Backbone:
């Protein structure tokens, strides 16, 4: 029995996710649009309460899974909806069987909005967040361009670096709907450029001057390029959600 949220409402929300058929990105956007910040916290608490009920009957079982997989398993069962939840609760052997057959996915909890999704300018569905990530990407590129004043050390990736700046700055100059469309359309290109730059630094780590290796542009940095475009796509997808 879910006590912190009306039980019918709780299971109605759970079943909206159509877990795991729709993955977690689409349900998360639906929940974010449908629930206020307070309602989201109550929903989180209700999911935790359902988890505890399953944990009470599963905790002493030999499921043969690690801690993370155990959490994924129980949350997966919750995500399947009321009928499956109650079925597993009444017959814990079904939990064992599901664990043995790896019949669960990671993770229904990803469907739930984060607290940050309700913070002004920090939500992954806000244009302010896209602007922030795009600016960070441009900053990384410009840092390395300044270090390579004569343009000799980074010559093999000169065009790629300029292409990144051009794509990101085009959005930053027009951070509106058309800008989001344009940036989102370049996800694959920015992913490809990031891969080229990563490989260049890995291959030439021993030959490049120390100032480049000390400030190595690694995968975390180049991920900013594609992340900006992916975030732009998330904003557009979120805007298109109807609840």
Residues:
């Amino acid at each position: 029995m879910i006590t912190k949220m009306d039980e019918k409402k709780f299971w109605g929300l759970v079943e909206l996710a159509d877990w795991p058929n729709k993955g977690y990105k689409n349900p998360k956007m639906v929940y974010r649009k449908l629930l206020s910040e307070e309602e989201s916290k109550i929903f989180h608490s209700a999911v935790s309460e359902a988890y505890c009920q399953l944990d009470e009957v599963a905790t002493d079982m030999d499921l043969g899974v690690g801690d993370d997989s155990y959490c994924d398993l129980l949350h997966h069962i919750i995500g399947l909806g009321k009928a499956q939840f109650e079925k597993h609760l009444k017959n814990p052997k079904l939990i064992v069987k599901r664990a043995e057959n790896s019949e669960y996915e990671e993770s229904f909890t990803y469907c739930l909005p984060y607290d940050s999704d309700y913070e002004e300018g920090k939500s992954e569905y806000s244009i302010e967040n896209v602007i922030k990530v795009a600016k960070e990407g441009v900053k990384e590129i410009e840092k390395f361009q300044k270090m390579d004043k004569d343009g000799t050390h980074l010559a093999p990736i000169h065009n790629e670096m300029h292409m990144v700046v051009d794509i990101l700055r085009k959005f930053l100059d027009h951070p509106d709907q058309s800008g989001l469309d344009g940036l989102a359309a370049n996800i694959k290109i920015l992913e490809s450029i990031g891969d080229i730059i990563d490989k260049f630094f890995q291959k030439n780590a021993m030959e490049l001057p120390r100032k480049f290796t000390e400030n190595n542009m690694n995968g975390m940095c180049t991920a900013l390029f594609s992340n900006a475009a992916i975030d732009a796509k998330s904003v557009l997808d979120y805007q298109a959600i109807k609840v």
